[in-house]
Amino acid sequence: MDLNQVTIPAKDVALSVKFYQNLGLKLIVDALPRYVRFECPIGNSTFSIHQADTSENKNGITLYFEVKSVEEVVANLKAKGVNFDSEIVEESWLWKEIRLSDPDQNQIKIYHAGKNRKSPPWRIKD
Fold it and tell me: What backbone phi and psi angles, to 5 degrees, belong to 76?
Protein backbone atom coordinates (compact mmCIF):
# COMPACT_ATOMS: atom_id res chain seq x y z
CA MET A 1 0.00 0.00 0.00
CA ASP A 2 1.29 3.48 -0.89
CA LEU A 3 -0.30 6.72 0.29
CA ASN A 4 -0.63 8.84 -2.82
CA GLN A 5 -3.36 11.40 -2.17
CA VAL A 6 -4.47 13.65 0.69
CA THR A 7 -7.50 15.97 0.50
CA ILE A 8 -8.17 18.81 2.92
CA PRO A 9 -11.12 21.19 3.33
CA ALA A 10 -10.98 24.92 2.66
CA LYS A 11 -13.53 27.68 2.93
CA ASP A 12 -12.00 29.64 0.01
CA VAL A 13 -10.36 27.15 -2.38
CA ALA A 14 -9.03 29.91 -4.69
CA LEU A 15 -7.20 31.57 -1.79
CA SER A 16 -5.72 28.20 -0.84
CA VAL A 17 -4.56 27.63 -4.44
CA LYS A 18 -2.38 30.75 -4.27
CA PHE A 19 -0.99 29.68 -0.89
CA TYR A 20 -0.03 26.15 -1.97
CA GLN A 21 1.35 27.30 -5.34
CA ASN A 22 3.56 29.68 -3.37
CA LEU A 23 4.84 26.65 -1.44
CA GLY A 24 5.83 25.06 -4.77
CA LEU A 25 2.98 22.66 -5.56
CA LYS A 26 1.87 22.41 -9.21
CA LEU A 27 -1.85 22.81 -9.95
CA ILE A 28 -3.03 19.93 -12.20
CA VAL A 29 -6.86 19.97 -11.77
CA ASP A 30 -8.85 23.20 -11.59
CA ALA A 31 -12.52 22.78 -10.75
CA LEU A 32 -12.83 26.07 -8.87
CA PRO A 33 -14.56 27.06 -6.74
CA ARG A 34 -15.21 23.56 -5.35
CA TYR A 35 -12.05 21.46 -5.98
CA VAL A 36 -8.40 21.56 -7.05
CA ARG A 37 -5.55 19.04 -7.18
CA PHE A 38 -1.79 19.54 -7.10
CA GLU A 39 1.29 17.47 -7.86
CA CYS A 40 4.03 17.59 -5.29
CA PRO A 41 7.36 18.73 -6.77
CA ILE A 42 9.14 15.54 -5.68
CA GLY A 43 7.72 12.01 -5.78
CA ASN A 44 4.38 10.79 -7.08
CA SER A 45 1.95 12.05 -4.46
CA THR A 46 -0.89 14.44 -5.11
CA PHE A 47 -2.69 16.84 -2.81
CA SER A 48 -6.18 18.21 -3.22
CA ILE A 49 -8.49 20.75 -1.63
CA HIS A 50 -12.28 20.67 -1.59
CA GLN A 51 -14.67 23.47 -0.65
CA ALA A 52 -16.20 23.10 2.81
CA ASP A 53 -17.35 25.16 5.75
CA THR A 54 -14.14 25.01 7.75
CA SER A 55 -15.58 26.95 10.68
CA GLU A 56 -16.89 23.62 11.97
CA ASN A 57 -13.85 21.61 10.86
CA LYS A 58 -11.75 21.14 13.98
CA ASN A 59 -10.27 17.80 12.95
CA GLY A 60 -6.64 18.66 13.55
CA ILE A 61 -5.23 18.22 10.05
CA THR A 62 -1.43 18.44 9.86
CA LEU A 63 0.38 18.23 6.51
CA TYR A 64 4.04 17.25 6.38
CA PHE A 65 6.17 18.24 3.39
CA GLU A 66 9.68 16.78 3.50
CA VAL A 67 12.53 18.71 1.90
CA LYS A 68 16.29 18.18 1.68
CA SER A 69 17.18 21.53 3.25
CA VAL A 70 14.70 23.12 5.63
CA GLU A 71 16.84 26.27 5.88
CA GLU A 72 16.98 26.75 2.10
CA VAL A 73 13.24 26.20 1.59
CA VAL A 74 12.35 28.50 4.49
CA ALA A 75 14.62 31.26 3.17
CA ASN A 76 12.99 30.98 -0.28
CA LEU A 77 9.48 31.04 1.17
CA LYS A 78 10.24 33.99 3.47
CA ALA A 79 11.49 35.86 0.38
CA LYS A 80 8.03 35.24 -1.15
CA GLY A 81 6.35 36.67 1.95
CA VAL A 82 5.31 33.40 3.61
CA ASN A 83 4.91 33.76 7.40
CA PHE A 84 5.79 30.96 9.80
CA ASP A 85 4.30 30.03 13.18
CA SER A 86 7.63 28.89 14.62
CA GLU A 87 11.35 28.92 14.06
CA ILE A 88 13.24 25.88 12.74
CA VAL A 89 13.49 23.31 15.54
CA GLU A 90 15.59 20.16 15.97
CA GLU A 91 12.97 17.84 17.45
CA SER A 92 13.69 15.01 19.90
CA TRP A 93 12.36 12.51 17.35
CA LEU A 94 15.34 13.48 15.10
CA TRP A 95 13.43 15.65 12.62
CA LYS A 96 14.24 19.26 11.78
CA GLU A 97 11.00 21.16 11.19
CA ILE A 98 9.20 24.49 11.06
CA ARG A 99 5.47 25.16 11.37
CA LEU A 100 3.08 27.36 9.43
CA SER A 101 -0.67 27.51 8.78
CA ASP A 102 -2.65 27.70 5.56
CA PRO A 103 -5.53 30.18 5.07
CA ASP A 104 -7.94 27.78 6.85
CA GLN A 105 -5.54 27.25 9.77
CA ASN A 106 -4.59 23.71 8.73
CA GLN A 107 -1.19 23.04 10.29
CA ILE A 108 1.76 22.51 7.92
CA LYS A 109 5.20 21.27 8.81
CA ILE A 110 8.12 21.61 6.44
CA TYR A 111 10.69 19.16 7.67
CA HIS A 112 13.65 16.92 7.03
CA ALA A 113 13.83 13.49 8.64
CA GLY A 114 15.86 11.52 6.14
CA LYS A 115 16.25 7.90 7.24
CA ASN A 116 14.72 8.73 10.62
CA ARG A 117 11.24 9.07 9.10
CA LYS A 118 10.91 5.32 8.54
CA SER A 119 13.93 3.96 10.42
CA PRO A 120 14.44 5.86 13.67
CA PRO A 121 16.73 4.23 16.25
CA TRP A 122 13.60 3.10 18.19
CA ARG A 123 11.93 1.40 15.21
CA ILE A 124 10.23 -1.90 16.07
CA LYS A 125 12.31 -4.81 14.82
CA ASP A 126 10.68 -7.11 12.28
Answer: -65, -40
Count of other CB atoms within 10 angstroms of residue 67:
16
Instruction: State pLDDT tens for residues 26-54.
Output: 999 999 999 999 999 998 899 999 998 86
Domain ranges of the chain: 5-117
Roughly how many angstroms between the first and final C-alpha of the chain, as a whole number? 18
**What would you report as the CA-atom Rg of the chain, rounded to the nearest whole angstrom?**
15
Other Cβ atoms within 10 Å of 83 Cβ, number: 8
Beta strands in 11-125 (DSSP E): 26-31, 35-39, 46-51, 62-66, 89-90, 96-101, 107-112
Q: Can you tell me the distance from the alpha carbon of 38 to that of 45, in angstroms, rounded to the nearest whole number?
A: 9
Dihedral angle of Cα 68, 90, 18, 7, to the nearest 10 degrees:
90
Give the pTM: 0.84
How many residues belong to the chain?
126
- Condensed to tens digits (0 to 9), the pLDDT of residues 5-18 reads 899 999 999 999 99
The CATH number given to 5-117 is: 3.10.180.10
